[in-house]
UniProtKB/TrEMBL annotation:
Pfam family, one: BTB
Taxonomic lineage: Eukaryota, Viridiplantae, Streptophyta, Embryophyta, Tracheophyta
Family of this protein: Belongs to the NPH3 family.
Organism listed in the record: Populus euphratica (Euphrates poplar)
Keywords recorded for this protein, A-Z: Phosphoprotein, Ubl conjugation pathway
Domain BTB: 27-95
NPH3 domain: residues covered: 182-461
Name of the encoding gene: LOC105137650
Name assigned to this protein: Root phototropism protein 2-like
Superkingdom of the source species: Eukaryota
Xref: PANTHER family: OS12G0117600 PROTEIN
C-alpha cells in the first residue's frame, strides 16, 4: 500500500503534467526534486527564478536539459506550487504552506528584486494580512517552520511568528476571547520546546504574570509527556510502562528543557505538578541539576505538600517499587534549613520555636512514613533518617509517628530486640496520647524499654494527681534510671542462673570423684604401717585434750571430710 505522501506526490505530478503538456510547446528541461521528476520549459522557469536562470546560463553544458533541485525547502509538493506560479496558474496559499513557499521563493530567488509581484512578495502579503493576524494562524506557521530551519530564521519568519504569538497570547490571558479561557495554551503545546521558550520569554517581556507562564508550561508538559504522567496524581497512561529509562532519551531532554523554563516565583507552580516532574526526572534519570532544581522548588513550599504528593515522588509509575528516598531527604533538609534561616532572621530560637508550617510538615511526614513502612526495601536507616529530619519539638504528639513505627515493626517481624529499639528510638514515649500509651503498653511488638516508659509515665501521673502534670525532664531522667535498674536486675538474674548451673555441675563431678576414690581404696587392700604412721599414732595417745571438746581421735582417718571454705552469699533480686 502506497504511503499518503507518495500518493499526494503522484497526484501532484499528474496534475502538473496535464497543465504542462496542454501547451503546444514541447518541454526542454527535466527538473528533479528528490524522487520526483518534472518536464518543464526553461523559459517559463527563468522568467521567475533567478536561481534557475543562473544554473542554465552558467552551465558548462551547451544544452542543459536536467536540473536537480532536491534541496528546495518543502520538497516536491512545494516545488509544484512554485512551478505553477511560474506558469501563471493559481494555487492556494494556507497557514500550513506559506512558510515553505516563502523559503522556496528565497531558495529559487523568486523575489521582487528579480521580478515584480513574484512569489516572495505574494507569500509576504499572505503572512502579514492573514497568517500572523490571528494567534492560531501564527502558531501553525511557526509549527511549519520546524522543518524549514535555518532558512526560516534567515527570512525572519520565525521571529515574526514569535512576536505575534507572544503579543496575542498575553492579550488572551488578560482578556479571553473564547472559552475555555486557557484555550491558547493547548494551541501552543504543538510547538517544540525551543519555540516555547522564546514565546514565554517574549510574554515575560510584555508583562505576563508568572501564573500565566506556568499555566502554559503545565499544559505543554501534560500533553508532551503523556507517556510518563497523565495528570498531577502521577498515574501513568500505561499500566505496563517499562522501567527501562534508556527508552526515554527524548523525554529526558524535553523534561530538562521544561524545568529550565519554570518561572522563578515560588507560588506560580502547584506542588503536585512539581512532585510529578521530580518523579519523572528520577524515572528517566535526568541530570542532577534538573533534579536539584525541582527539589529546591518543592522544599520552599513543602508546607503545602500532601502525603499523596510525597508518595508520587517515592514510587515507580506502576506503584510496585520504592525509589531511593534521597530526594525526599534532601527536600526535607532544604525545608528545615529555610525554617532555621527564617527563625534566625526574626530573632527567635530555632530549637525552641516551631512555625505552623513546621507542624504541618511534621504531621505529613509521619503519615507518609506510615504509608511506606510496609515495603521490604525500606531499611531501618532510611526510616529513621526521614523521621529524624523533623525536629522532635515540631511534633505536638507522637501518635502518627508511633503508628508508623508499629506498622514498620509489623511488616518486619524478623527484627531482633536491638533493631526494634533502634526503630523506636525516633519516638518520645512521653509525647504519646493516653490512647496511644494504652495501645503501646499492650503492644507485644514494641521492645521492653518502650513499654516500661509508657507504664511508668501513667504511674507518675496517678501519683501526682490528675491535674498535676509531672515535669517532663525529671520524668525522663527517672525513667532512664529505672530502665537501667531493670536492665541490671535482668543481668543479675541471668548471672544467678548460670551460677546455679555451675554449682550443680561441680557437685555432680565431686560425687563421681568420691565414688572413684572409695572404689580404688577397696581394691588396694589394708594400708601398710610406716615409721611415721606408727610415730603419729603413738603421739596421738599422749594428746592432753583427748577427753576435751577438741578431741578428734574418734574420727576415722579414712573418712572424707569437706574442708572447703564456706561460700559467701550475696543478696539479689530474684
Amino acid at each position: 500500500m502506497a504511503s499518503p505522501v507518495r500518493s499526494r506526490l503522484s497526484l501532484a505530478m499528474e496534475r502538473t503534467g496535464k497543465w504542462v503538456f496542454s501547451k503546444d510547446i514541447p518541454t526542454d528541461v527535466v527538473v528533479v526534486v528528490c524522487e520526483a521528476s518534472f518536464s518543464l520549459h526553461k523559459s517559463m522557469l527563468m522568467a521567475k527564478s533567478n536561481y534557475i536562470r543562473k544554473l542554465i546560463f552558467e552551465s558548462k553544458e551547451p544544452e542543459l536539459d536536467r536540473i536537480n533541485l532536491s534541496g528546495i525547502p518543502g520538497g516536491p509538493e512545494i516545488f509544484v506550487k512554485a512551478a505553477k506560479f511560474c506558469y501563471g496558474f493559481n494555487f492556494e496559499i494556507t497557514v500550513h504552506n506559506v512558510a515553505a513557499l516563502r523559503c522556496a521563493a528565497e531558495y529559487l530567488q523568486m523575489t521582487d528584486v528579480y521580478c515584480d509581484y513574484n512569489l516572495a512578495g505574494r507569500t509576504e502579503d499572505f503572512l502579514a494580512q492573514v497568517a500572523l493576524s490571528s494567534l492560531s494562524g501564527a502558531i501553525f506557521v511557526l509549527k511549519s517552520c520546524e522543518d524549514l530551519l535555518p532558512l526560516a530564521e534567515d527570512v525572519n519568519i520565525v521571529q515574526r511568528c514569535i512576536d505575534a504569538i507572544s503579543l496575542k497570547a498575553c492579550n488572551e490571558a488578560n482578556f479571553p476571547s473564547r472559552t475555555p479561557p486557557n484555550w491558547w495554551t493547548e494551541e501552543l503545546s504543538i510547538l517544540n520546546i525551543e519555540f516555547i521558550g522564546r514565546i514565554l520569554s517574549g510574554m515575560r517581556k510584555r508583562g505576563a504574570k508568572a501564573l500565566t507562564l506556568a499555566s502554559a508550561l503545565i499544559t505543554y508538559t501534560e500533553r508532551n509527556l503523556r507517556d510518563l504522567v497523565r495528570d498531577h496524581s502521577g498515574r501513568c497512561t500505561k499500566s505496563s510502562i517499562s522501567d527501562d529509562s534508556g527508552m526515554y532519551a527524548h523525554e529526558r531532554e524535553l523534561l530538562q528543557s521544561i524545568v529550565s523554563l519554570l518561572p522563578s516565583e515560588k507560588a506560580s507552580l502547584p506542588i503536585n505538578f512539581l512532585c510529578c516532574l521530580l518523579r519523572s526526572a528520577i524515572f528517566v534519570k535526568a541530570s542532577n541539576s534538573c533534579k536539584n532544581e525541582l527539589e529546591k522548588r518543592i522544599s520552599v513550599i513543602l508546607e503545602h505538600v500532601t502525603v499523596d504528593n510525597l508518595l508520587v515522588m517515592s514510587f515507580t509509575c506502576n506503584g510496585e517499587k520504592l525509589y531511593d528516598l534521597d530526594s525526599i531527604r534532601r527536600i526535607m533538609s532544604g525545608f528545615m534549613e529555610k525554617e532555621k534561616n527564617m527563625a534566625v532572621f526574626s530573632g527567635g530560637d530555632f530549637k525552641e520555636t516551631c512555625s505552623a508550617a513546621m507542624h504541618r510538615v511534621a504531621k505529613t511526614v509521619d503519615s507518609y512514613l506510615g504509608e511506606i513502612a510496609t515495603y521490604p526495601e525500606l531499611t531501618i536507616s532510611k526510616f529513621n533518617g526521614i523521621a529524624t529530619l523533623v525536629r522532635k519539638g515540631a511534633r505536638k504528639v507522637d501518635d502518627d509517628l508511633y503508628r508508623a513505627i508499629d506498622i514498620y515493626l509489623k511488616a518486619h517481624p524478623n527484627l531482633d530486640e536491638i533493631e526494634r529499639e533502634k526503630v523506636c528510638s525516633v519516638m518520645d514515649p512521653l509525647k504519646l496520647s493516653y490512647e496511644a500509651r494504652i495501645h503501646a503498653s499492650q503492644n507485644k511488638r514494641l521492645p521492653l524499654q518502650i513499654v516500661l516508659h509508657t507504664l511508668y509515665y501513667d504511674q507518675l501521673k496517678l501519683r501526682s494527681g490528675a491535674d498535676d502534670q509531672p515535669d517532663a525532664a525529671a520524668t525522663r531522667s527517672q525513667l532512664q534510671s529505672d530502665v537501667s535498674l531493670v536492665s541490671e536486675n535482668e543481668a543479675l538474674r541471668s548471672e544467678l542462673k548460670k551460677m546455679k548451673l555451675y554449682i550443680s555441675e561441680m557437685q555432680k563431678n565431686k560425687g563421681s570423684s568420691a565414688k572413684s576414690i572409695s572404689a580404688a581404696a577397696a581394691t588396694s587392700g589394708p594400708r601398710k604401717h610406716t615409721f611415721f604412721s606408727s610415730m603419729s599414732k603413738t603421739l596421738g595417745k599422749l594428746n592432753p585434750f583427748k577427753h576435751g571438746s577438741k578431741d578428734t581421735s574418734h574420727i576415722d582417718d579414712n573418712l572424707a571430710v569437706d574442708i572447703t571454705k564456706p561460700r559467701r552469699r550475696r543478696f539479689s533480686v530474684s
